[in-house]
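User: Second chain of the day. Same drill as before.
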Amino acid sequence: MARIPSKSEILDWIGENPTKTTKRDIARAFGIKGADRIDLKRILKELEGEGHLEKRKKTYRDPDKLPPVSVLKVLAPDDAGDIYLSPLEWHGEGPAPRVLFSAKATDPALGEGDRVLARLQEVTGEDHAYVGRLIRRIGTNPHKILGIFRKTAEGGRILPIDKGSDKEWQVEAGASDGAKDGELVEAEQAGPKGRMGLPSARVIARLGDPSAPRAVSLIAIHEHGIPDDFPDAVIEEADAKKPAGLKGREDLRDLPLVTIDPADARDHDDACYAHADDDPKNPGGHVIWVAIADVAHYVTPGSALDREARKRGNSTYFPDRVVPMLPDRLSGDLCSLHEGVPRACLAVRMVVDEFGEKIGHRFVRGLMKSPASLNYEEVQEGMDGQPNEKVAPLIEDVIHPLFAAYDALKTARAKRQPLDLDLPERRIELSEEGTVTSVAFKDRLDAHKLIEEFMVLANVAAAETLIAKRQPHLLRVHEEPNQDKLTALRETAQASGFTLAKGQVLQTRHLNSLLNAAEGTEFDELINMATLRSMTQAYYSPQNFGHFGLALRAYAHFTSPIRRYADLVVHRALITVHGWGEDGLSAQEVERLEDTAKHISDTERRSMMAERDTNDRYLAAYLSDRVGATFTGRISGIARFGVFVKLDETGADGLLPMRALGREYFHHDAEAQTLTGADSGMVIGLGARVQVKLAEAVPVTGGLVLELVEIEGKTVKPGKGRHRGAPPRRKAGQAKAKSAKVKKKLRRKKG
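Assistant: Same format as last time:
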């Protein structure tokens, strides 16, 4: 008779042999046979009851340990670029153990949310409990749905709020998380998608009434996955920060560095000052100071604040709220260049000649105190001879010198010729209750242009300094348009009676010449839209590919570190090259600049889409009580399913479905961006003037459906159309032939 092992012996053996945990394996290890297995079974039952072991599919294992082969979820890379895995199931006490992913060269690239089957190896003495090696990837993060919950007898349904989707989701009874009828919910796909019927989903978050005030931006935040709550550790770290002093800084408190921002701005991250250059070698020249909040002093590499700022990438701005990159303690207080308060800054002193060409610059780490926080409108009014009480004392010594320097910069700009698109920006005004009161286009004041030119000059100075010092950093890159897009632009220009130079290296001055030729003509908007469509999207990169749109050889974002992580990276790079402190760019940050550039380029696009969707929903809500009214606009996009129209009054985009274009069939030309009527030969292209009727406005999706009344002054007969989903009508002859064929088959079967 074999000796029955003790409980501790069994536990020790299982710990040493995690892959051999069946009852048979344990019996074989201790030489237990026959009837002795009954006693072994009893001991294993007792260990299971005491919580020392967990039985899973005939195997026994320590519940506080992961099985040697597990299904795990891929987490986002940490600050060091390491990827960790999280177990989908954990039955032990305390938090789930950390699993470091060890990738082989042949492994596929994994993204956050991917599901993997991995072989685990236990480790000791590390900040992680296991090392995981990929067996195979088995899926991705469950599909997320944002929509309106509709209660049914079987559970419920979710109606998506994405205007690009009309697919509903089935929610089984018990998977609704208590959601009420009409409530906005976030859900995820439940199980694999079936071939028949509606796909299944389970509610994971209830977001409240979708029609509630200020719910519009909340929808976009959840829809695009924008982090809007700061972790406690980040808030605690921000609250513990103290204002920076003068130690190690140049005293700039005597310089009248003023901030000029929108009237409703909560944070002020840039200030400026200019005066005539007193150097006799630079007659008619100017000295321009641009001071930027020293965010790097407070947000240091590897800190909780830094990790969260990098994760967010940038602030996101909605009509009703701001989702900031940094907590308010920093963004609205310590880092903000408030009037009359000493504030840490990184400043650049730039010297330009009488023609606005920069002939020298130097950076300093300083302490400033702004004499005034101004807005664009009051600065412009002051310059136009109507200063208010705040601006009047600053006219001679501050405002006039700023505009004198700006006049010089305009000369340099005219010589450089950056792309000069006329793209008016709309502004949505909300009441205190969160409803839209008006939609108007923002005025482009000289005060706006002044600040823009100063910031561009400072950004160029930052890029030039870091390139000269061979310091790795992030650049703002804008590559020239590809040939296909240029060909489309040339065809559009030619069809409108204009020409775009061919057979030479394209420069912005060639595009500006086209835009100037179209200015004031009926094709003005069309050429501006077509030129914009031909452009590539700007992005961040550690490699310098120049900035085509600004006609600059090198450009880096330096002037907005409160709201852009890229600027914070540039600040740290400047701190490093000047030896200003230990809070510069770390070696780890340099190694992952490529990843950082891609990440913040993605977060920037995410914010842009969220802001656009929010504006669309607010505009749809604003226009919802004007259904049936007529509007004028221009065609801004052509697709197989219809035409997009930008309305003149609000700048809102609406859809003219194909059925609304008339009674004939239209041929779609994707390259030329046109629709051609099969019977009439009528060509519908970009920029065409239309009069439309608003048929439908859906605030929850932001969708506007239009009906065509006139195109280029010609009335269009409405299309007959047919009900959605109705079968196509067959000609009488076709129907008769089909019926005869079916009858013939039936006769054959009977025979």
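The chain has a mean pLDDT of 86.

User: Great, on to the next one.
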